[in-house]
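User: Sequence for Calcium-transporting ATPase 2 below. Tokens please.
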Amino acid sequence: MSSTKTKDGLSTSSLPSDSVQVDMRDTLTTPHNDPANPFAFTPNQLAALHDPKNLDLLHTYGGLEGVSKGLYADTHQGLTPNITHSTHVTLGDITLDSSKLTVVNSNNTPEIQETPKPQLNKSATFMSTNSRFDPYAQRVSIFGSNTLPPVKSKNIFELMWIAFQDKTLILLSVAAVVSLAVGIYEDIAVPEYDAQGNKIAGVKWVEGVAIIVAILIVVLVGSVNDFQKEKQFRKLNAKKDDRIVKATREGQAIQISVYEIQVGDVLHLEPGDIVAADGIYIEGHNVRCDESAATGESDAVRKQTFEACYRLLHDEKKDDFLSVPNPTQTGSASSIQSISSTKKPTQDHHKSLPDPFIISGSKVLEGVCTYLVTGVGINSYYGRTMMALRTENETTPLQEKLNSLAGMIAKLGSAAGLLMLVVLLIRYFVNWKFDGVPSVATEIVQSVMGILIVVVTIVVVAVPEGLPLAVTLALAYATQRMLKDNNLVRVLAACETMGNATTVCSDKTGTLTQNKMTVVAGSFGSSFRFLQDPPSDRVDLNDIKVIPEKVPAPILNLVNQGICVNSTAFESTDENGEKQFVGNKTETALLQFSRNLGATDFQSLRTRWPVEQVFPFSSERKAMATIIRIPHPVKKGEYIYRAHVKGASEILVENCNQILTLNASKYKSVEHDFDIKTRPLTNEDRNRMERIIQSYATRSLRTLGLAYRDFESWPPVGGHASTIGTETEVPYEDIVANQGLTLIGIVGIEDPLRPGVKEAVKACQRAGVFVRMVTGDNVVTAKSIAKQCGIYTPGGIVMEGPVFRNLPPSEMDAILPR
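Assistant: Structure tokens for Calcium-transporting ATPase 2:
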């Protein structure tokens, strides 16, 4: 059987017979007979969806809805804890016949019918509460937890045996046994008497026992230290892999540890997230993932719903898949290969077909989405890969050098010992000529043993066998001390590697600053400026607390609408039962600002209007946008599409040609809740906005612009929209085309410095370590923060990334020291 991989990442195979194909399909779609498993799937059946991606098998399982029903999961509400499923649901209750999805019309072209919703037996939905200790004990027992089994560690006796394998200790042991035997023999067979003829108690065995005790001490100390070190690093490894992910449970968005993820959970993904478990895409916007770590393909993989992907596959005249185990991956029943045609898909700006499979270990490049978890721990793609790549712990660079040094010293010591042995033996036997041959054999043995013990002592003293161990213990102790200072050392070698560091590049937000952001200043329109606790002599500045009283209601409604819908942060309940915003700190600061303006229930604002498209924040455009459909302000029964945009203030101002007006007379009679009055944005307004941005930046405030734009239709007429599957993608450039945005205002967000940052920077500089700040903030803001930290000093350089990267290497080398 041969196997190839198509450009869209789906595997194809050539099989010797159709009967084998059918047998393998039956294997994957045959209901299991495990009475302890109330779910429709086994871990291997779910793993077969992703390894490799198998769209046809997902269709056979009933698509996303079939899988969620088979897992007793809710794609909207998430899991409910402390539930035990007392009845069984089988594949027969949810699977679909693939022939039902495709029919042939009169033109002999395939037409895709709507996927029928899988129906469950009513008896299969009975649930009861159980599990006093683990709220998801039943799921864990079937599908496992999202942890990998710990690497088998050696017990204390194995470590003692390894420590005893040291060649020096073996040599000492031989000498100790011989010394003990000779001593016992002399004490018993050749007793000694004093001058009065009394027998002297034999103590010659003590020397051998002393050597044995010394060996035991060395072995025990070394093995106990190794045991403690392994125990410490098991804890350290468990902590380094832990992180927080967003999930929906019982209808509430919450944060959970990556170790608490269960099969059936609904997880949230944002740009930059590393996928923690395998799953199936539920819903989202413009999601693309980097799966190069898993597949080796560098192209970003687009994610869409199962229905859209299956329809697109047939629209592209792709043949059905058929899955069989991959014999090259032994021991993995989840290894599947798919039969598909090699017809080339229609060429457009997309390099490959989208798929609904979320692969663990991949990285979200852009977009936001939710997905249903189908594989965790060793049953996930990433887990199986990690288990296959497990190797023995590598020694650190310093340990390798010390081991090499110890080896050279051992050779030198052994050579010196051997030379000493030869010299002493020659001297001893030569002395027989003058002193005579000993009459008792034990005297000869005792003398030779004394010589051997001297030689072994020289070797033992010369060999620093404890030096690498001492270094390891010192590093392990250092990492624990650093952990108490909230400094997690993931790799042991990092401690010694950092000793050679000459430059530290630090982010600003959350590293130099506290990442506790608050809106403290801002401007609505061109004239209404506000500040937290303004000075009494500044009559042009309004207190931030009086905004709800002085700003017209339509503008407040627009601001709250834009902040609430154009955000990925969410509201959660902490351990004390208090509501708090969770997510990006800039967005949580805006949501708190909106709440202070009167938007008490932001969740209802977020769900009030349908979302058409989301442009997640990216470092390239430095902006985020959300398009919602709202009722037409004039034409009853019709709709318009409003794009809310937030991002770098200086960039947003450049893309605006209108600005809000807060003239109170224009708001005396408003036609509706969002009756916004605007006027053209003049050059004077632009200059005023620029001065405001500069003034905020010099006070170390992060500035953020808010803007919007209304469209009569979506996609916009005359735009550059493209369609793939069921999704229509409008490029961000269409939103800001022709400077079409209307500026709402600018806000300044404060993020105070962390305590001790100045002292830490000075300590690094005293140690000869050059500290640089790398941030995506406004240049003026970055410079102001750098001055406060002591990073930027007179003669230093502040430079934007694109400018620096375009410099020739010679100029880079000249600038770097500054």
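The mean pLDDT is 79.
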